[in-house]
Specification:
Helices cover 26% and strands 20% of the residues. With 214 residues, it is of the alpha+beta class.
């Protein structure tokens, strides 16, 4: 059973990336279930890949009345993150990092973050990010970890509370779907199926069609 105190953490304020206004965290689950994805940093390559992965569920979540929300620990790097299109949900910032603290998302020290960042899970996730053409940077708060919180409509109960142990840890897409009791059409790491269509003529231009976009 989760030890999250929704009444306490729900009072914490977040800044909307869209409006710049502050809202209480609990407002995000007031009218619908919500998946809250807490990033380590907006510039983190692995976080961007994780954001793109969880975004694969957005159509299925939306179809089932579930909101998808991404939360960062600082505003730094947010514009580049938004412009990069890594995440399909709403974006907020926990400027005081109160949600991160209340949900048990640890902070590394300048010493402990180095071996954590060089661990196998991070290397594996970074390799997947590279394969998908996702890059990152080392700007911003390098010491914060993240996780995920899934809450039922109205704050009735916590459906999933996940805390990163390694910066490469993340919740599998099927586990998110299972926690919500919804079916999903995609799986982790699934890529679009693309075909090459050759045009007529001597130059024979090549067109690349991705079936997932049709």
């Amino acid at each position: 059973m989760s030890s999250v105190d929704l009444a306490k953490v729900g009072k914490n304020l977040l800044k909307s990336a869209e409006t710049g206004q502050n809202v209480e965290l609990q407002s995000l689950w007031q009218d619908q279930p919500v998946v809250l994805f807490f990033l380590r940093r907006f510039g983190c390559q692995v976080c961007r890949w994780m954001a793109s992965e969880v975004s694969k569920l957005e159509p299925d979540l939306k179809a089932n009345g579930v909101s998808l929300v991404g939360i960062g620990p600082e505003e730094f790097g947010m514009k580049e993150f938004k412009d990069g299109g890594f995440f399909k949900g709403s974006i907020y910032v926990d400027e005081q990092k109160k949600c991160y603290k209340d949900l048990g998302f640890k902070r590394y020290s300048a010493i402990s973050v180095v071996p954590a960042a060089l661990g196998k899970k991070v290397r594996d996730a970074a390799a997947k990010a590279n394969a998908d053409g996702i890059t990152g940077n080392f700007s911003g708060d390098l010491l914060q970890s993240g996780g995920m919180l899934i809450v039922a409509k109205g704050g009735e109960k916590v459906l999933l509370h996940f805390i990163q142990d390694s910066p490469g840890d993340h919740v599998a897409l099927e586990d998110i779907s299972k926690a919500l009791g919804v079916s999903a059409k995609v799986k982790e790491g699934q890529r679009p199926v693309c075909l090459r269509v050759w045009g007529p003529g001597k130059e024979r231009p090549c067109f690349r069609i991705c079936l997932s976009n049709i």
